[in-house]
């Protein structure tokens, strides 16, 4: 067991799994080894074997709740979520009030977008006194996903009031404020800086230091990329182009994948890396030690405060230069992170006040989108102009995550629908698969003035191609505010559907402007709510413009700097070199 754990600490997960298999063949009653083996198998993307060993362990020791949780996790990652749910519900009856089972069930609810179920479970656990910190964080996430921003922020604030040093609560509060249309940019920045101060107060004395001004500014670099999203995920659509730039100038790239289950896209990142380490099971100290041992010069982190982030480890300063990029639209607040990748549109001069990092500005856009190789064909005729029962009916698309749809966004969209009487809103979001969650959100839509007769829900469609093809049913996409879409905006433009956005004063509400500018559609970016309503209304009735967009927008997108990987690679290579030269210059 100790040897297997040592191998896992060295990211030699497959070797650890082989060792544990041999160990269990000789010692089949060692229940803790089954749990460790299941974790290892999930890390290397083998949930079926993990399920096999979890069930073997349960046949031997049915009274160990952690084994039930392990089996449920293996079922979840084997795409047998319904079976996982049945198993966990049985486990809840067998082990009432057990946090391990409660945490796994909360995770499953969140993973399947059953936010109402997570809410109910956590309310019950809190009333009965067994709500763990992990479940409490999950509860706040569920409330946030349901659009209950006030409830989510109230939880985080009350937790901070009772426990001022609770980093998890401070991080959840900072993240939630990004979606709050009433939160001023300086207040959002202050909340993030508060998280950074908590990390500094807790870990600052342990942070590694690096003397500046003594290294070679022009030598090839050892570059690391840290992310849990090197898989089929929105971040991956932009990380692929990042790798192109990092590999230039004879640099070497080491990936630190902190996710749990890989896929075909994970394999693609593995091929783009000189070294690919699976680190999902490593502790912060173990991951820190690995990066230091690899002598990484420049470390990119792609998560910010999102799920499975490693900010705790980053607070220890594992590399002399750390850059946060792509995955999070605000400052991390950490003093140990040197730079934040931005452009002059998302973060114009003066935005420095909203971040602890130095802005690493490249020419706009700061992102590069890699579209799927074979997207669906575009129907050149806007849906409202097609013959049939919906002829003359404008279809507005809302394909963003539900937690971006705050009350102000719904009010804006309601005004647009009111201005265009023959129109509907097509809402496509993962959460709409769960009936209870859908009903809760529908009430919010109705409260904003959009009843069932104006809102059409679309549940999950299998595969990316089918998802993209859904845009062929849409005339105009409406962007949420203040948290703009990024992947959804690029996908909409790829399918010839123009996007109307409302621009704000912080990065989170300026991403749409840099994307739209790339395809010469900045005229669809409003500066005020009234202008947003006007632009959406005007575009919906301009069939000439809509037809033009459907026939040219994909071509403009693919020819733009937003999709020019060679250009982006060059810009990123220069940016990384500039960051390194800063380090090589004495204070």
3D architecture notes:
With 587 residues, the chain is α/β, with parallel strands linked by helices. Among the domains are: 62 residues; 159 residues, Rossmann fold, CATH 3.40.50.11380; 181 residues, Rossmann fold, CATH 3.40.50. Helices cover 49% and strands 10% of the residues. The chain contains 24 helices and 13 strands. The strands form 2 sheets. Strands 3-2-1-4-5-6-7 form a 7-stranded parallel β-sheet, covered by helices on one side. Helix 20 links the parallel strand 11 and strand 12. The radius of gyration is 24 Å and the shape is globular.
Major sheet size, sense and barrel closure: 7 strands, parallel
Shape: globular
| SS class | alpha/beta
Uncertain runs: none
The CATH homologous superfamily name of the domain at 383-563 equals Glycogen Phosphorylase B
Average per-residue pLDDT, rounded, comes to: 93
Number of helices: 24
Q: CATH topology of the domain at 383-563, what is it called?
A: Rossmann fold
Strand content: 5-15%
Tags for this model:
587 residues; seven-stranded parallel β-sheet; six-stranded parallel β-sheet; 24 helices; Rossmann fold; alpha/beta
């Amino acid at each position: 067991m100790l040897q297997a754990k040592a191998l896992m600490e060295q990211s030699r997960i497959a070797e650890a799994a082989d060792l544990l298999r041999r160990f269990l063949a000789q010692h089949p009653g060692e229940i803790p080894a089954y749990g460790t083996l299941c974790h290892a198998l999930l890390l290397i993307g083998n949930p079926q074997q993990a399920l096999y060993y979890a069930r073997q362990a349960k046949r031997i020791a049915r009274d160990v709740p952690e084994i039930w949780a392990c089996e449920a996790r293996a079922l979840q990652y084997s795409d047998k979520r319904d079976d996982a749910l049945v198993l966990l519900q049985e486990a809840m009856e067998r082990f009432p009030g057990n946090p391990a089972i409660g945490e796994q069930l909360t995770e499953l609810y969140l993973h399947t977008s059953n936010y109402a179920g997570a809410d109910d479970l956590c309310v019950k656990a809190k009333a009965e006194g067994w709500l763990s910190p992990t479940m409490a964080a999950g509860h706040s996430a569920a409330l946030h996903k349901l659009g209950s921003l006030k409830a989510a922020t109230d939880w985080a604030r009350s937790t901070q009031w009772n426990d001022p040093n609770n980093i998890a609560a401070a991080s959840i509060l900072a993240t939630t404020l990004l979606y709050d249309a009433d939160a001023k940019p300086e207040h959002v920045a202050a909340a993030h800086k508060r998280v950074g101060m908590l990390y500094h107060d807790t870990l600052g004395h342990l942070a590694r230091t690096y003397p500046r001004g003594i290294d070679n500014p022009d030598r090839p670099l050892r570059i690391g990329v840290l992310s849990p999203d090197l898989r089929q995920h929105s971040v991956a659509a932009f990380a692929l182009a990042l790798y192109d730039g990092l590999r230039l100038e004879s640099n070497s790239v080491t990936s630190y994948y902190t996710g749990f289950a890989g896929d075909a896209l994970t394999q693609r990142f593995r091929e783009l890396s000189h070294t690919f380490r699976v680190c999902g099971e490593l502790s912060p100290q173990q991951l820190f030690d690995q990066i230091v041992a690899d002598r990484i010069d420049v470390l990119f982190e792609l998560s910010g405060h999102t799920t499975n982030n490693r900010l705790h480890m980053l607070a220890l300063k594992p590399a002399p230069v750390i850059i946060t990029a792509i995955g999070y639209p605000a400052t991390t607040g950490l003093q140990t992170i040197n730079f934040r990748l931005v452009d002059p549109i998302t973060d114009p001069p003066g935005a420095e006040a909203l971040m602890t990092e130095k802005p690493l500005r490249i020419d706009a856009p700061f992102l590069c989108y890699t579209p799927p190789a074979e997207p669906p064909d575009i129907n050149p005729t806007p849906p409202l102009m097609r013959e049939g029962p919906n002829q003359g009916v404008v279809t507005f698309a809302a394909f963003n995550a539900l937690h971006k749809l705050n009350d102000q966004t719904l009010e804006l969209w309601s005004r647009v629908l009111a201005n265009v009487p023959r129109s509907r809103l097509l809402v496509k979001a993962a959460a709409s698969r769960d009936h209870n969650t859908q009903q809760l959100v529908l009430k919010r839509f109705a409260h904003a003035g959009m009843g069932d007769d104006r809102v059409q829900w679309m549940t999950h469609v299998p595969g990316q191609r089918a998802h993209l093809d859904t845009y062929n049913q849409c005339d105009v996409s409406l962007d949420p505010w203040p948290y703009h879409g990024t992947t959804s905006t690029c996908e909409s433009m790829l399918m010839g559907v123009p996007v109307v956005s409302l621009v704000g004063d912080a990065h989170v509400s300026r991403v749409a402007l840099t994307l739209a500018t790339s395809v010469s559609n900045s005229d669809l970016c409003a500066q005020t709510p009234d202008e947003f309503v006007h632009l959406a209304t005007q575009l919906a009735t301009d069939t000439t413009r809509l037809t033009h967009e459907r026939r040219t927008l994909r071509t403009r997108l693919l020819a733009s700097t937003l999709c020019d990987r060679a250009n982006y690679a060059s810009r990123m290579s220069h940016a990384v070199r500039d960051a390194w030269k800063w380090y090589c210059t004495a204070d």
